[in-house]
Amino acid sequence: MPIYTGKTIAIAKQAAATALGVPTDQLTIKVIQEPRNGFLGIGRRAAKISAEPVVKNKPAAKPTPDQPATTSAPASAHSTTAPRFATSQPTAAPTDVKDGDELDPAVIKAHHAANISKVRNAGDQLVEYLQGIFKDLGVETAPTITQVEAHAITVDVKTPAPGRVIGRHGQRINALEQLSNVFMNYHGAPKTVVMLDTADYRERRRQVLHDLAQRAETEVVASGQAVFLDPMPARERKQLHKELENNAHVKTYSHGREPYRSVVVAPQN
């Protein structure tokens, strides 16, 4: 059956009636997708239905004088003829799937290309979404996709006012990054990691975290006490753990719950 969409199921049904040229009460419909408003535009989706006109049963054709109706006589209780049964044709056996087909390089390449396409399409929608947010905040921006991978995308937010994009201690850009991850999940690219950047902020931040790890190590060794760092995104926590993972004097672990989860640098023993 053809598929029709609308903001509500009633609107989708009316669209089907208009397209098919029949009243809505003469339609057979099946709801494929319930509508949802979403949150801040994320997760919004239209109603989807399939529809077709109601098929009325036609009366049986009357026999013509030249073709009288025939009735089959009931089988005699003493009939010696064996009853005849309809036999179905044997179903063709399914094609065997060879071992290792899922590892076929051509299949892997096709899946990879499909994932890239999904991330790219959702990323184009994300760019428009971010432009709308910054416009509401009064910040002139031009978000641009700079890198696309199967499950990752980087968006560079070009702006004459990078400080307003970054926010205090990176709070605004980090919050928008989390929102962007949710956006991608709801728009056909689940489990995609989004990185928002502006004016090389992420590279400068990596250097800051490197210096922070060195200072924390020095303080822990000197005082013998653990150091609790400020809350930060998962990507930054991962960098700090990696910076000190092979250190013979200190160890690291995360503490707290998102979005206030932070890294603790403690003595090794």
From TrEMBL:
Where is there biased composition of kind Low complexity? Answer: 63-83
Q: Where is it predominantly found?
A: cytoplasm
**Keyword Cytoplasm carried by entry:** yes
Q: Which InterPro entries match?
A: Jag_KH (IPR038008), Jag_N_dom_sf (IPR038247), KH_dom (IPR004087), KH_dom-like_a/b (IPR015946), KhpB (IPR039247), KhpB_N (IPR032782), R3H_dom (IPR001374), R3H_dom_sf (IPR036867)
In which compartments does the protein localize? Cytoplasm
Domain of life (superkingdom):
Bacteria
CDD domains to which the protein is assigned, alphabetical: KH-II_Jag, R3H_jag
**Keywords for this protein:** Cell shape, Cell wall biogenesis/degradation, Chaperone, Cytoplasm, RNA-binding
Asked whether the keyword Chaperone is assigned, the reply is yes
Where do the segments described as Disordered lie? 53-100
Domain R3H as annotated: residue spans: 203-269
Quaternary assembly: Forms a complex with KhpA.
Domains as described in the record: Has an N-terminal Jag-N domain and 2 RNA-binding domains (KH and R3H).
Family, as annotated: Belongs to the KhpB RNA-binding protein family.
The record describes the protein's role as: A probable RNA chaperone. Forms a complex with KhpA which binds to cellular RNA and controls its expression. Plays a role in peptidoglycan (PG) homeostasis and cell length regulation.
Q: What is this protein called?
A: RNA-binding protein KhpB
Gene name of this polypeptide: khpB
